[in-house]
Amino acid sequence: MASSGWELAVNESGVLKGHEGAVLAVRFNGDGNYCLTCGKDRTLRLWNPHRGIHIKTYKSHAREVRDVHVTTDNAKLVSCGGDRQLFYWDVSSGRVIRKFRGHDSEVNSVKFNEYNAVVVSAGYDRSVRAFDCRSQSTEPIQIIDTFQDSVMSVHLTKTEIIAGCVDGTVRTFDIRMGRELVDQLGHPVNCISLSNDANCVLASCLDSTLRLLDRSTGELLQEYKGHKCKSYKMDCCLTNTDAHVVSGSEDGFIYFWDLVDASIVSSFRAHSSVVTSVSYHPKDVCMLTSSVDGTIKVWRK
Amino acid sequence: MADVDEEDYVYFGTPIEREEEISSRKRKAIAEPGTLRSLPPWKQEVTDEEGRRRFHGAFTGGYSAGYYNTVGSKEGWTPQTFTSSRKNRAEVKKQNIYSFLDEDDLKDIGGNTLETSMQYDTFGFTAAEFARKKAEEEQKKRPSAIPGPAPDEIVLPASSSIGMRLLMKMGWRQGHSIKDSNAESLSEIRREARKAFMALSSNNAEPDISEKDADGTDEFPDMSIDVLRNSENTPVYVLNPKQDMYGLGYDPFKHAPEFRDSKRLRESKSRETKRSKVHMGSLLSSNSKKYAPGFGIGALEELDAEDEDIYASGFDYEQTEVELEPSKAVSSSSGDRMLQLENKKRGSLLGFKLASDSDYKLERFYPPAIPSNFRPIHKFGAPLDQTLKNYNSVPPPDAPPPEDTNLRLLIEGSAAMVARCGKSIEDLYMEKSKTNPLFLFLKSGAEGYDYYVRKLWENKQKFVDNLKPAEKLTAENRGRILGERPLASTTSRVNDVSVKAREVINTQSSHGDTVTKPISLADLPDSAIKQFKHDPAKQERFELFLKEKYQGGLRASGTRSSTSTSTMSEADRARERLDFEAAAEAIEKGKQTIQISAPSTDHTKDLLGFGEDRFVPSTLIENSETKLEETNVVYPKREQFEWRPSPILCKRFDLIDPYMGKPPPVPRPRSKMDSLIFLPEIFKSSNKEDAKSPIGNSLEASKSGLKEAEAEPSASEADVAPTSPKNVERPVDLYKAIFSDDSDDDEADAGPALNQAPNPVKSSEGANKTLNRLVAGDFLESLGKELGLEVPPDSIPGPSLNANTVSLPEEQKSFKGGDDRDNTLFPKVKETKSKDYGSTVDSSREKKRSHSKHHRRRSRTPDLDLDSGSDSDSHRRHRSRSKKRRDRRDRSRSRDSESSDEAYMNRKERRKKYHSRHHEHKKKDYGDKYSDKKRRS
């Protein structure tokens, strides 16, 4: 394990400060050159994490911003949060192009699809809703309400919508087949993350366990334990090589597990408070973490 | 000729004639004017001396001025916009109504009128009017499809005048007064104005001015405050008739309304003096402030002391000039002003003075001194929980309340207090009891002590129960509160159950009055409880069941379902409950034997052993497969459902809609309960039919499942086969729900209709029935094809439906066992049928009526609700669900039929009764059974 330790982003190389209050999510953009953060101070911020520059602040949300996603062409943003709306932003001008309404409650997670034509959001109102970016309508074009509880996290592939829910399920909605696959994990799912090859889904459960599922069979491949995740919405992810699993912890630690044998490769204190989000660079060994303590840290090997 | 014509011609009206007529007539008229006389007025023509037609009727004054029979201009009809010159290109000419009007028309309209400029219309009174006029003008200028002025609604009035706009530019906002908050500049202006005025009014006023100026500077700060205070709003505009000679909008009492009344008084007085002209001089001299005659005080002038009443009686200018005594006036006025200034400084109203000493004094209390050793954290002496636990462990015996109601109330109250506030209060009461005989009950042994102890305990219990939900709200807790199905593996099972059990015990023992059997589990032999050793989960449930049974006494279904695993299906739970019930009974018996003959433990062991033997196999056999998926659910578990993406979503994802052109989806059940009941079976059936229907398409599958299920009852109505209950029972109801015709009626009707088919007496209803039958026949045929069954051709859909022929009484027995459900279908119907055996129409109507009656009765006794068609949709829906549960229950019952469920027996008996009645009254309904029998054989 020590041999592979060198390729983990465990050394702090920078701190991005600017958010007032907790930072709830940090996301690399598609090519990993920029990152977006959002937080309790109702703003979105665009950074260059490699140079540590704050580029832009997007203000319009009325409540805390819980998630943000950027299109593949870096032209548009979508963000969601406590004000039950999705904000569709123009990146360069910083103006809100549209607000998508429809959620009855806080929105936990939001994603663009591959063609940046649809925004899919997951909310506390036990539903996943899809909105059309190309039409003028602000109403959802699809509502999936088979969930029994708050939907915490949503991911999209080319043909599927994958969502993790507090009712203990990871649901995969296959648009091409018209099928809903329900993988019951038995524990509230806090966050889901896809492996880079999109064959596996990593689900962070509220029993302080990460579970790796095979997407085609629904088989449980591995469980990762050691961190603390019981009540906060926290992120987990896989490293750029899919060799390790990363997750924050409620005590401010970051944990690295080996993907295959589930041993803790590395764990270190990153923040003084709950680590809300981790994001791994799509290609390089670089990681961003955000915390309730209001800082975003950049980690390199 | 003129004289003659005078009489003949009519001078008004403009005849409209066709051209050819006119031309022909003109010639005629010229030729022989005499003939005109004989013509009616509208055919006569006006000609001049030479017989030329001059009057054309085109315009009101209609004489062609030299340009004969044309428009009246040189150009004639040539368009004005057209110019032949190349250099002088056509310009777009603005046409308005005036270019089409002559002087007379203009005169009529009003012509060259003077108009007010709206630019200075400060309040926009005429803005609307102006806007409308402007719009009209525009309308006239531009060519429009719609002639005439635009409607007022379309045109919005221009709002702000130029003055308004200027003010806005300067920072003024609507609703504020125009006064500048910067009072210095204002006062500056005012002073200048006053100077000018003084200079103009009197020559010898110089010293006064200087004096006033000095005073004025003193005054201004106050004034500026005043201004600030008053600059909030513009004064309310009140419509008063103007009776004075002040400038427009000038109000001398603007800032001193209290003087208005005095002024009014004075005015009336002065009027009197004017009338009488007696005391004028003296009055005016008393009115000494009037030293400033003439014009000069502008709107800028604030109300000051010196010019207060300057226009007070406007008619007396001359006199005031004469009577004026400036020095006196100034001195007195300055005295006045001094007083006012003082008042202003004090912050009170004009003309009022603050009292130098007042009775009212604000009393101030200093905060209590905090002792130096005080620590701002409170520590509770004795933890409440410990005492509570003590109370938990040993519930004191129930005691009767004392007779004295006062005492009882006192005891209850003090018990509640002690329970809430702890031991210290009790000690306080104890102290009191030394002096006050009322609190004697606190001493043990005294009257009411037992009751007090009991009450105290109960209150503590309640208090504990109240405390419980104040725990941290986790996902599980919330789920429990909301009654969601707990995720099976979220907490370790044993702990969960034990906690729940404790809770249940607490809540139930808190309702001390309802406790029936306060026997603890402890005195039961261990082996007695361990009835289901082979299945730990079940064993736990059983223990819980026992606890509830013995300690709770209350066995409300709500608490039970909350504690027992809700992952089980309804039917399984019911079955398990039966098991438990029986086992508990056995234990009860065993205990009784223990109590009777304590040493003979062998016997009880035997008995228990017997019980174990008895219950182990049945549960093992029945639950072995279901157990696996119920309790030991292996996570992750994968399920698959149909899901319909919306077409637009597919389009946006660049995918082909998998449900393109397919019928709309079957609504999926929302609640977990429904899915527990519905889905497994749907999927089972889908599995069964995988051979026929495409894999994964559960819609298709469920549909075909439906069809199959429909076919079954039709194919074997009486064959009610316990062999394949799953497929028969549920979907029949579904089918009924979908095909909204009351299928029971259809079934019942079809029989007689068939019988009466050869009957010569055929009504329209009969025709309808045959039509229905045809449709039904088609349907059945298609079903048959799909299922690979032989369905007889259209004319005889019969063997399945009720053919009402008499059958043998021996067959009654054969129905009882299996087919009691179907036989009890229409007890009432059958009664009526037996009455009018031959006539069809009436009987069918009667049947319907009796049907509904039947349902009403049934809904009251759900136990008997074995099968029925329902008229109302809601009823049907409800029934389809309840029936499902019932079916499961039936199945379970059929499996362990030897279980001694009394209710079940009752039901059976009642059903038998139905049977017998049904067989008494009904003679002809046996045909179907008969045919069924035939088919079976």
UniProtKB/TrEMBL annotation, chain A:
The record's WD repeats, renumbered to this chain, cover 16-57, 58-99, 100-141, 245-267, 268-301
**Is Cytoplasm among the key words of this record?**
yes
Could you tell me the superkingdom of the organism this chain comes from?
Eukaryota
Pfam families according to UniProt = WD40 (PF00400)
* The keyword Repeat appears for this protein: yes
PROSITE patterns found in the cross-reference section: WD_REPEATS_2, WD_REPEATS_REGION
Q: Which parts of the chain are coiled coil?
A: none
Q: Which InterPro entries match?
A: WD40/YVTN_repeat-like_dom_sf, WD40_repeat_dom_sf, WD40_rpt, WD_repeat_MORG1
Keywords for this protein: Cytoplasm, Repeat, WD repeat
A GO-annotated cellular component: cytoplasm
Gene Ontology biological-process annotations? mRNA splicing, via spliceosome
Q: What is its main location?
A: cytoplasm
Localization recorded for this chain is: Cytoplasm
Similarity section: Belongs to the WD repeat MORG1 family.
Supply the name of the protein.
WD-repeat protein
From TrEMBL, chain B:
Question: Where would I find the SURP motif domain in this sequence?
Answer: 410-452
Q: Where is the G-patch domain?
A: 159-178
Keyword Phosphoprotein listed: no
| InterPro entries linked to this entry | DUF1604 (IPR011666), G_patch_dom (IPR000467), Surp (IPR000061), SWAP/Surp_sf (IPR035967)
Signal sequence bounds:
none
| Compositionally biased spans, kind Basic residues | 846-859, 875-888, 908-922
| Basic and acidic residues: compositionally biased ranges | 259-275, 810-836, 889-898
Renumbered to this chain, region (Disordered) spans: 134-154, 200-222, 259-282, 688-769, 788-937
| Feature: compositional bias, Polar residues | 756-769
Q: Which GO terms describe its cellular component?
A: nucleus
Q: Which GO terms describe its molecular function?
A: RNA binding
Entries under SUPFAM superfamilies matching the protein? Surp module (SWAP domain)
Q: Which PROSITE patterns match?
A: G_PATCH, SURP
Q: Name one GO biological process term.
A: mRNA processing
Q: What's in the keyword line of the UniProt record? A: mRNA processing
Q: What is this protein called?
A: G patch domain-containing protein 1
Q: Which organism is it from?
A: Rhynchospora pubera
